Amino acid sequence: MTDAMQAEFDTVAEWTARVAADLGPDYHIPAGCRGSGSPAALDWLIEHMELQPGAAFLDSGAGVGGPAAYAAQAREVVPVLLEPETGACRAAKRLFGYPVVCASGSQAPLADSAFDAAWSLGVLCTTPDQRQLLEELHRTVRRGGYIGLLAFVAHDEIPADQLESNHFPSPDGLADLVRQSSLRIEEWLRTAELPAIPETWNERVDAVTQALTDRYGHTEAWQLAERQSGRIGRLLEDGVLTGELLVLRHA
């Protein structure tokens, strides 16, 4: 993992938990969802994945754990978090207390058909082992269970030196990856079509970001992570990248 990726998914993740803990419980889930899911996106996935109370639920590449906590709050699922970065694992345990397995989603030390449903949000483009990641989701979710994805796809070529350690498929490439992994697309929605994010949510995320900037803005790790995030933001604004929500099942 490059320095920018390490900063974003390890160091800054742990700082985020510290800030959210200081700000209070109302900030935990918005802080834990920074960069990995808006309420509208999570609500859409929760509805179309038909999540049920008590369902064993896997978040692969869970980061700080905000999306899994959101799903547990919305539908009373029982989450397990799978996350390779130790800083993010510690952050998730601190904020939410769910079981955390510190391992890669493309090599998940989890039993076959152990979960009723799973999702992986913003993770696919960060790994070169994309088919293996999807195959592991296929393996660990029982037949008939849903798998949700938030994936970023490229509509034009992105110079290799512009973004570090990202592997954005094309829309057709993403569809091919899904088919090669023995999964079937049930629903597909571009994130630009979602409703607006509630103002209260934005205010809490902004408060977390401001606190992080105030405390850690002078550090190399924060500056690296912010540069990477800014580059992706500009590509999304220009339409070179788009966010895509998919709901999958066993083919």
TrEMBL record:
All residue ranges annotated as the Methyltransferase type domain in the record: 58-147
UniProt keyword annotations, A-Z: Methyltransferase, Transferase
GO molecular function: S-adenosylmethionine-dependent methyltransferase activity
InterPro entries: Methyltransf_11, SAM-dependent_MTases_sf
Keyword Cell inner membrane on entry: no
Record's signal peptide: none
One Pfam match: Methyltransf_11
GO biological process: methylation
SUPFAM superfamilies listed in its UniProt record: S-adenosyl-L-methionine-dependent methyltransferases
Name of this protein: SAM-dependent methyltransferase
